[in-house]
Fold:
Amino acid sequence: MRLSLASLGILAMSVVAAPAEPLPQADKLPSIAEFPDVLTMRDGTKITTKKDWEEKRRPELKALFEHYMYGKFPAKPEKVTAKVLFEDAKALDGKGTLREVEITFGPPEWPKIYLLVAVPNGKTPAACFVGPNFGGNHLVTSHNKVRIPTVWVPGNGPGVEKGTNKATAEGRGKQADTWPLQQIVEKGYAVATFYCGDIQPDRPNVKEGMRATMPLPPGELSGSETATVMWWAWGCHRAVDFLVTDKSIDPKRLAVVGHSRLGKTALLAGAFDDRIAVVIPHQSGCGGAGPSRSKNAKAETVKRITTAFPHWFCAKFTWFGDDTTKLPFDQHCLAAICAPRPVLFTNAEDDQWANPPGQFDVLTAAAPAFKLYGDDKPVAAKVPEQGKLSDERLGYFIRAGKHAMTPDDWKVYMQFGDKWLK
Ligand code: GTR
Structure:
C-alpha cells in the first residue's frame, strides 16, 4: 500500500518568522539573571492578548530557539510517502494490530523513517503516543517481522556486537519495557515509535543521516545549522505526517513522548508542530524541560552538555556555556510555545541530573502564556508529592527511582492522556 500524504494537503506546519534585524552575538545580548518574562518581546513590548502572542511573541521565540539553540527548523518535505512493510492483525496477544511503515520524504539517498505502529483492536480511531526510540524498533518487541536497523546504532545497546555498532536480531524485545506496546493498546491507546538514528545517528563529526544532506564539511557546525535534536524533532513530524492519514488513528489526539535526549526532542517537536495535541518530555533535563539558568547544583549545565554532546545543539549554543544569563530565553519559553496544548514533565527523584525542581520552575514560568488562553490555573501551586500526578495543563510528575522510562511511567502518561486526549 502506498499513500501520498502531500497530495492530501495535510502538511500544515507552523511558520517561523525571520527576525527583523540580525540577532546579536552573545556578548551583545543583555544579561538577564532570572528567566526572561515569557510575555515580554525583545524590544520590551508587553504581550497581553492571545492574538499578539500568536502573531508576535511566539514567532519571535521560535526564531530565537532556532538561532541560538537547536538550529534551523528545516522546511517541510514536498512529498511524503508511506509503505506498509508488514501488518499483523493478531499481534500483542490478539489485543492489537502491529505494523511497520516505511516513510520516505526525499530523494532516494535521503534517510527514511521506519515507524512501528501498534493499534488497539476494536477501539479505533485511537489516540496515539508517538516518539523516537534509542536503538531500533526491534528492541521494543520480539515480533520477528520488525526490521533491524542497518545504520549505526549505539554500541552499548542489547544485541549489538562489541565494537561493531551494528544491530542484530539478538536485541529483539530486549527493551520492551521502555515502549510497552501491549500495556498501551490494552488501555485503548495506539502507539508509534521509530529509531532516532534512522534520521540522524547520535554521533558527531560524521556526514550521515540528514546531516549528510547539508552543505557542510564533516562535523562542522559553525552557526545555526540544524542540529541533531532538531533533526530528531523533525523526524517526529514526519511520523505525524503519516499518523494523521492513518484511519485507525485519531489525528486530533496525538501525544509526543520521549526519554532523556529524546525527551528534549519531544518538547521541541511539540513546540514546532501544532498537530501534536499533548507534549510529554520524560526526564529530559538540560536542553529540554530543564532550565539553562539552573539553580540545582546536581543538575547538568549548558557548559557540560555542549562540551559532551556538541552535535545535539547548534554551535551558537556553546556561546552560553560560561554565562547563561545572556540567553534571551529559557526553557519555559519552549513550553509556552506549546500553549494551550497540555505539556507534562515527568521525573525521578534520583535523577537530579535532569533537574526535577528546575523543571517545575520552568512550568511555573510558562504559565502566563497558557493564561492568555483562558486557563486561570494552568500549573499546580507547588511540586506534587512523589508518585502523585499533577494533571493541570502544565502537568508534573515525580516518582522515586532512577533515570529510565518504565511501564509505570507509561501509566502516568496514559493517566494524563485520559484527561487531555479523551
Ligand atoms: C546524558 C546527558 C543527558 C541525557 C542523557 C540521556 O548523558 O547528559 O542530557 O540526555 O544522557 O539521553 O540518556
User: Anything to note?
Assistant: Residues 76-134+178-420 form a domain with the Rossmann fold fold (CATH 3.40.50.1820). The chain has nine helices and ten strands. The mean pLDDT is 94. The CA atoms of residues 125 and 343 lie 23 Å apart.
